[in-house]
Amino acid sequence: MQLNRSISSRPTRNVRIGSVEIGGTQPIAVQSMCATRTTDIELTLRQIRLLESAGADVIRIAIDSKKDVEALKQIRKETEANLVVDLQENYRLAEQLAPYVQKIRYNPGHLHHHQRNVPVADKVKFLVDTAAANDCAIRIGVNFGSLDPDKREEAADPLETALLSAHEHCELVEKLGFQRYVVSLKSSNPLSVVQIYKRFAEERPEIPLHLGVTEAGMLPDGEIKSRIAFEQLLAIGIGDTVRVSLTLPDDEKDKEVLIGRKIIEDVKAGRFRSVPEFLDRGLNVISCPSCSRVENGAFVKLAQEVKRVTEQYQDKKLTIAVMGCRVNGPGETDEADIGLWCGPNFVNLKLGPEKVGAFPYDEVIPRMLEEVERIVADR
User: Fold this and answer.
1) What's the pLDDT at 281?
2) CATH superfamily of this structure's domain 281-378
3) pLDDT digits (tens, 9 = 90+) for 81-109
4) Are 188 and 228 in contact (CB under 8 A)?
């Protein structure tokens, strides 16, 4: 149920993802990601159907173990949805899961975790060969919260690091003769998203782009942040598929799809609702989307509580990041004034890159507020 494209488009090449084709003059596809644990087959199928009913063209699930792969095999028997697998550290799992998905997403910043003695170029070749043999597309998913550590030494700031990483991996993939891929360059700051996508689109206009503001957070702020980026980019033809990343309860994940479709329709109709200056004023609570990588379901309620108890500081310039897993948790909380990086049983409280301590979920809020009050007083 892709949305017809009546807004301007770039002359990118087309990329097929199962029954969906993106790029060029193709309709803009809307994506989302399951928040359930992949090994819970019944709940994952229920969420896939929820997302499909909202109009999701592509649905992402996370695979981090052989148990996840076995669950995926069963899930595939029960759905014809276009599935994207979100690979984590173990890139070699791609070989086992590729027959059951339409696209493989890998993060260049994660390839160094597993088999560190194997060159990155060899790992990319393994992924490309696997995708080609199984009729899969690839997404090169660069994320400001988990950038390639080797590239950080080559660039002055995260934006330049992300661009370096994206260009390197595009070259690695294309040298192997593979062109069925898309690129994403995600940040939790919508203004950085606009800047980096414009840069990349100018430098590589032929590559289809997946738009997203990672850790956009809770509603209504999460929609506002997504609109700030999407409206400015879609209006000039940048963006071939979109994902709105929201912190939501499992039974409300369809809102990611509904809001994504609404933003596209609004841009097509010339309705622009965002306020680009929004982020430069006052409190900014960042929280990652609820997904299957979250290590404790209490993360969603914790994020909601952080937002509630900090409402009195709306006029204070302060960034608080609430992250649900180890994937982007360290990087995003490093950049925030106060970070809450959630583990299975404890929440790591941080001030920038410095860890204050680990606290139980029901004890971390009062401790966080102490730091909020201290920072506000100091400023």
Assistant:
1) 66
2) Sulfite Reductase Hemoprotein, domain 1 (3.30.413.10)
3) 999 998 877 899 999 999 999 999 999 99
4) no
pLDDT band at residue 280, thresholds of 50, 70 and 90? low
Architecture of domain 15-277: Alpha-Beta Barrel (3.20)
* Residue-wise pLDDT tens digits, 136-158: 999 999 999 888 888 777 777 99
Where is average pLDDT lowest: 54-68, 106-120, 128-142, 327-341? 327-341
